[in-house]
Amino acid sequence: MASSSFLCNKVDNIMQNLDAPQHGGRLHAAADLFSIPLAQWLDLSTGINPYSWQPPDIPLSVWQRLPDSYAELESAAHHYYGAEVLSIPGSQWAIQTLPTLFPQARTWIPREGYEEHRYWWQKLGHEIRLYDDLPSLPLQKHDVVVVINPNNPTTNRYERDELIALADTLNTLQGTLLVDEAFMDATPEVSVFAGNSTLPANLIVLRSMGKFFGLAGMRLGFIYCNEHLQQTLRSVLGPWAVSHPAAYVASLALQDTHWQQQNRLRLAQSSIKLKAILLEHFDQHSISCDTLFCTLQLESNKAAQLYNHCAQQGVLLRLFEQWGKIRIGLTTKPGLQRLQSALQCWNS
Ligand SMILES: Cc1ncc(COP(=O)(O)O)c(C=O)c1O
To answer: Where is the Aminotransferase class I/classII large domain (predicted)?
Structure first.
């Protein structure tokens, strides 16, 4: 692991010129492209919970004062995750920062998945290896393996035991396992944090307040990692990287176990309803659903056609043209009705 001065030299010297990944939620661009006013869109292009946790009024003192400690937030997070974590301004921050802290390494990235991982490791000059499935990896000394669990957008999942065994194997090679659990909150029982065993020292886990809690705009996430890396990250973060309002709101949301339980049930029902609508139009083998979205795997240009078809009716989906995939976020009852009518005249 490198110091932060190494970080700066490395960033200056090695940053590669790559095209930044595209994301869902680009409503302004869609409004311009399809000439439909912003307010008329149904945005299903993200995997953000449509029933987000409702923040209370934030006391003026929280806006006025700098956060002088994150102890309360991190204690609530410890209790919620069952592991000691460091608060960060969104898990994206860690995705961008971690590759600056490792010496040049071969980095294994899922062939299909949240593209920011590949982008940042590659941008920082690491050697990228794309994988389809974990068990087949020919690992070498110092390798870094990135697993997105569950994967966005494929919905693939790996078992906790498999990931811990992988971390152990990597440990013998002085390698690192980075598990992105941004979409894990609805199924905490299968998180790498579940169970009582001590976690391997070379394991890094990312969590997000954006997806399950539906608070993506708050820019708050957490990282689990060993003490040495935590110290480095703290010095890169500086004193107030997480805003006081974000820390205040997140502490409350993390302690709201009643909402969390209700929300897990509601999301499960919502996912079943979305899948039922998709089954009316698509082959069951082309549909895979996770707790916050469903993904369609379609023949070559069908994905782009479906995206355009729905967009022309003001329903924004997430197109992954390079993989022939469409991701559709969960939505409320009126949202489902609108999706249903948009799909009515879809000729698959
Ligand atoms: C798999 C995955 N990880 C991490 C992130 C970043 O989330 P955030 O920075 O809001 O925590 C995203 C955002 O879409 C994601 O899809």
So the answer is: 68-338
